[in-house]
Design a protein that fits this description.
Elements: E1 5-13, E2 16-21, E3 24-29, E4 42-46, E5 49-53, H1 59-73
Antiparallel strand pairs: 1-2, 1-4, 2-3, 4-5
C-alpha cells in the first residue's frame, strides 16, 4: 500500500516547493501535480513528489484522517 502525506506549500521555486508537514519542512517536486501550486496550497506527497492538490474543502478532513492513521500506526499513542 502506498501512503500519501498531506503537506502545506510554504514557497515555490520552479518545479520544487518547500512543504511543511506539521512543522517539518522538505523540498519536493511539484511538476507531477500539473496545476500551478502556490504558497498556502495543500498537496498530497508520495516518494518526494506532490501527486495532487488537495481541494480546500477537503484539507481539514484529510489532515484529521492522516493524524488518526498515524496514531493507529503508533499503537494508538499520540
Amino acid at each position: 500500500m502506498c501512503l500519501g502525506v498531506p503537506g502545506e506549500v510554504q514557497e515555490v521555486d520552479g518545479q520544487e516547493a518547500l512543504l511543511s508537514f506539521d512543522g517539518a519542512e522538505k523540498w519536493v517536486r511539484v511538476d507531477v501535480v500539473g496545476d500551478d501550486v502556490e504558497a498556502g496550497d495543500y498537496v498530497l506527497v508520495h516518494a518526494g513528489f506532490a501527486i495532487r492538490r488537495i481541494p480546500e474543502a477537503q484539507v481539514e478532513r484529510t489532515r484529521e484522517l492522516y493524524a488518526e492513521a498515524a496514531a493507529a500506526g503508533a499503537g494508538g499513542v499520540s
